Amino acid sequence: MNNILVPIGTSPNSSDTLQYAIDFAANFGAQVFVMDVFSVTSGTGSLANVKEKVAKSSKEHLKEIIATVNTNGVEIKIATYNGDIIDGLKEIDKELGIDLMIIAPRSNAIEEELYLGNTTGRIVKQTNIATLIVPKGTVFKPIQNIMTAFGSGILKRNRILNPLIEIKDKFRSNITLLLVKRPGYSEEDLQVNTALLDLSQQLTITEHATTYLGVLEHFQKQHPEMLCVFRRKRGFFKKLWEKNTVPKAEFFVTIPVLVLSVKK
């Protein structure tokens, strides 16, 4: 794991997410890229230098956030992009090869309606970059127990497991596999990829209407410190793909969630 990206928005908790990313990256000798996105359509005359001024302001904003954290010897680089955030993320991934994105959910507070807001929801659903969703205020600690939940054991490419494998190897994590048989499942879905099976000596099979309900059943039994799921249209966020936001009524956990992309 070499390149970790932290998209920075206007949240007052941005420094918490960045600090977690730095402490996480320090274990892998990775460098961290902080990224801010703005949208300016430059015209002629007096508007010609607006983009330059906004880009400069964006960089200053990132520098202020970086100044509030302990860099822990990790190299931090700044990236800005003029345009849509998804286009910007795809562009920086194409240029640098991002191994992992680290973002925060909309809110930890149970009274708040959304787990992922419009921007974070788009990031999780519309990119192919492995993403770690870290609850605000979470202090990094070595990850000992990981629950990996899925409704289909089919993986077209073993390399999508690389972030999970690197975390397991670095922290000697214990991984449990949870296969949730959902309505309409096929026998092929039950044939779990051998690379995935190799990560764990424990495979549990359960039946529920959604993968998330299966997670809820086993969450208290296993007490995972991280949940790992897959980003695909028939996967964990199956019924949520039509909209960008993710309501807490449909999904909410208080631990980091690693989302792996089946398309990567």
Summarize the structure.
This protein has 264 residues and is an alpha/beta fold. The protein has 2 domains: 3-103, HUPs (Rossmann fold, 3-Layer(aba) Sandwich), CATH 3.40.50; 145-256, Rossmann fold (3-Layer(aba) Sandwich), CATH 3.40.50. It is built from 7 helices and 12 strands.
Give a written overview of the molecule.
29% of the residues lie in helices and 24% in strands. The chain has two domains: 3-103, 3-Layer(aba) Sandwich (Rossmann fold); 145-256, Rossmann fold. It is built from seven helices and twelve strands. It has helices at 14-26, 50-66, 85-96, 118-126, 162-171, 194-197, 211-222; strands at residues 3-7, 31-38, 76-82, 100-103, 114-116, 131-133, 145-150, 174-181, 202-207, 226-231, 246-247, 257-261. Strands 3-2-1-4-6-12-10-7-8-9 form a ten-stranded mixed β-sheet, with helices on both faces. The chain is an alpha/beta fold and 264 residues long.
